[in-house]
Write a structure and sequence with these properties.
Elements: E1 2-7, E2 14-19, E3 26-29, H1 32-37, E4 41-45, E5 49-51, E6 58-61, E7 69-73, E8 79-83, E9 90-94, E10 109-112
Parallel strand pairs: 3-10
Antiparallel strand pairs: 1-2, 2-5, 3-4, 4-9, 6-7, 7-8, 8-9
The structure holds zinc ion (ZN).
Residues 8-10, 12-13, 73, 75-76, 78 line the site of zinc ion.
Length: 118
């Protein structure tokens, strides 16, 4: 497994996580929230994710069934990760916040049908 680091734009929210397959099973979601965020995500088991900064700048947004917890930086506003509704034991990370990641053009990006649960 490799360790990856990531952050929001202003670096008040820092995180790291481990995965052996950074570009596998990456996805977009078509729900009303993810559509507006326009990001690509990668899911990992909750215990592979570590918040490296204090939670002072961590904002939380919940909506609809209030199971998913969406985290973002309250200073710069960038969404970093969330606890998944379909499996709260999983965290999805905003891949665009991960350091040194290049997503090749031919990478398969799945679409999760979150819209059916809006
Ligand atoms: Zn920030």
């Amino acid at each position: 497994m490799e360790t990856y680091k990531g952050s929001c734009h202003c670096k008040k929210v820092l995180f790291s996580f481990k995965t052996s397959s950074i570009l596998e099973d990456i996805y977009k979601c078509n729900c009303s929230l993810c559509t507006k965020k326009g990001i690509i995500m990668k899911s990992i088991p909750k215990d592979q994710f570590v918040l490296k900064s204090s939670s002072n700048f961590l904002g939380k947004y919940v909506w609809n069934k209030k199971i998913a917890k969406h985290y973002f930086c309250i200073k710069c506003g960038v969404y970093t990760h969330h606890i998944r509704r379909r499996d709260p034991e999983q965290i999805s990370v905003n891949l665009m916040c991960v350091d040194d990641i290049l997503i090749p053009k031919d990478t398969v990006i799945n679409t999760v049908d979150g819209a059916s649960h809006d």
